[in-house]
Automatic annotation (TrEMBL):
Pfam families: DUF4382. Residues 1-22 form the signal peptide. This is Uncharacterized protein DUF4382. It comes from the Bacteria. InterPro entries: Carb-bd-like_fold (IPR013784), DUF4382 (IPR025491). Keywords: Signal.
Amino acid sequence: MKIAKALSVLSLLLVTFLFVQCSDDDSKSTTPVKIRLTDAPGQYDKVNIDIQGIQIHSSENKSEENGWQVMNMINSGVYDLLEFNNGVDTLLVDQDMPSGTVSQMRLILGDNNSVVIDGVEYDLDTPSAQTSGLKFQIHDDFLAGIEYKLWIDFDAARSVVKTGNGSYKLKPVIRTFNEATTGAISGTVSPTEALPTIHAVIGLDTISTIAEENGEFLIKGLEAGIYKLAIEPIEGYNEIEVENIAVTIGNITDAGNIEIDAVVQNN
């Protein structure tokens, strides 16, 4: 009787050990993944984009069709891109993924896209190829147990195209970046009445934002390097450039306060 009880206890301990061991192994083979939406703003009242799904292609994901895994969206539906500029973003996905190499992401758009200009809403024509999935190259590693943060950065100004008949078409201009391999530039532009657009320029690449009402700006997702800031204010103020802004990975470079001069009127 005592031997039977001892064997029973031993079996229970063995099962518990195996369960804990498998749980630990599972946690070590997955990566917490967070995907956020942000935007490079445009001169519109609203840019409404209908995001219906996100898929990730992983070399380790053999269970899904052709390696594509459908992500669990926190909220699918219409997002106004202009609510998410100057470092503001919104969380689209928060889930565990199999660790391994990822090569692509696919963004699935719906048909409910629009732009609001001077208070008037216009439909954004969306080609069928976009609703079947916009693909982006990632080529990164999901390391087991290490949180991976990825941003989808729309360029609202370049994504909305006016056609010859006065309608508007959605031609998404999007980049992706992750926090671990990029840096940022911040600063303040004055006077605030200049309402400038700020361009971070390196080589042939340009990434833009618009200053907040208080003059502050933040441009994220920049690769390491030496940038030029090109400041374009509204009419009545002079454009200005700031050279030699060094960006390093994982850091925010403060460009300080940038003064814009008003255009001098000749009598």
